[in-house]
Amino acid sequence: xxxxxxxxxxxxxxxxxxxxxxxxxxxxxxxxxxxxxxxxxxxxxxxxxxxxxxxxxxxxxxxxxxxxxxxxxxxxxxxxxxxxxxxxxxxxxxxxxxxxxxxxxxxxxxxxxxxxxxxxxxxxxxxxxxxxxxxxxxxxxxxxxxxxxxxxxxxxxxxxxxxxxxxxxxxxxxxxxxxxxxxxxxxxxxxxxxxxxxxxxxxxxxxxxxxxxxxxxxxxxxxxxxxxxxxxxxxxxxx
Length: 239
Hints:
By secondary structure, the chain is α/β, with parallel strands linked by helices. The chain has helices at 33-45, 61-73, 101-115, 131-137, 141-152, 165-173, 214-225, and strands spanning 3-5, 12-14, 18-19, 50-52, 80-85, 87-91, 94-97, 120-125, 155-162, 179-183, 229-233. The chain has a seven-stranded parallel sheet with strand order 3-4-5-8-9-10-11, with helices on one face. Strands 1-2 form a two-stranded antiparallel sheet. The two termini are 23 Å apart.
């Protein structure tokens, strides 16, 4: 396994990370908990030191499995754990956007309990696809609370997840966001910025699309210039 400096965080992360959408439930429903925990432990044993999860995946199941695996293997201190807050999972595969202060507190508390830890390496402001939503967050109890968690050491570093390159670029320029979880694959890179995630999964695409979209190219340059790390979601068009 090779490791790289992860932007201004100062952390060294494995080039391959472990996402937990599937392990948390989707596609793994017939697999026992022990099998799922073994999968997480196997990834860590083979050099993966970055695990991405949130309380939203299967109502906290993914976080619980990560917490159990790291406790069982005694590897919490050498694994970088990224989790998220900002959307409340209501079941049936549906995200309900809910950035209310009490929900954010609930999610952060739940994450610490689920993960059986007293700190989060990377706490992400989750699923911000609209520029309007980004601007609202800048003057909100939500952001104040995230900053307090950072000051107290409960969150070591602040990140953001988005499917919109315009929003992600604003985050990269904010000064306080140190990493971005962004949807990257050859098909998405040709698509213009959008607030609607469904446009990433269209049945057909404009035949005139060629090369990388200008907003996406600008985002990648901005992250490089501002030493903001990027992790990839939907590399194969799924979670």
